[in-house]
Specification:
single chain, alpha/beta, Rossmann fold, 5 strands, binds 1,3,4-trihydroxy-5-OXO-cyclohexanecarboxylic acid, about 150 residues
């Protein structure tokens, strides 16, 4: 059976490439995912990617990943990072190892971005390295799974 990892992205990340490029860079989400697919393949994993602007759909995606036997999640929850008890509960409920991932250094930004509802129930957190954050997160997750 394929060893699959979910790359899950939350609200507004579909706009990467044009959204505040000074903060988030110029890579599109498709660019980022294509790169992760390559990295995963080199290590014998497959990536399944999903993006939603809807909190409940992200909860459903975590449930579905666990039911389908996916092994872990690279998750950029976008602004829901700072607000969503539902996503925190979904991570705990599924027991999936999740790496919380952010392009920007949220701690160097507005105060409301300094709190994460999710970090405490994640395997780890990678932030501040632009698109490279996703690569570092995937690398760490695969090493954990190995
Ligand atoms: C983000 C940081 C969040 O605070 C913000 O709401 C996002 C993107 C990041 O990747 O840096 O949408 O998760």
């Amino acid at each position: 059976m394929a060893r699959e990892i979910l790359v899950l992205n939350g609200p507004n990340l579909n706009l990467l490439g044009t959204r505040e490029p000074d903060v988030y860079g110029s890579d599109t989400l498709d660019d980022i995912v294509a790169n992760l697919e390559r990295l995963a393949d080199e290590r014998g994993y497959e990536v399944r990617a999903m993006q939603s602007n809807v909190e409940g759909e992200l909860v459903d995606a975590l449930h579905a990943a666990a039911s389908a036997g996916l092994l872990g999640v690279v998750f950029n929850p976008g602004a829901y990072t700072h607000t969503s008890i539902a996503l925190r509960d979904a991570i705990t409920a599924t027991g999936l190892p999740v790496v919380e991932t952010h392009l920007s250094n949220v701690h160097a930004r507005e105060e409301f971005r300094h709190t994460s509802m999710l970090s405490a129930v994640c395997l780890g957190v990678v932030l501040g390295f632009g698109p490279k954050s996703y690569q570092l997160a995937l690398d760490a997750l695969m090493t954990h799974l190995d």
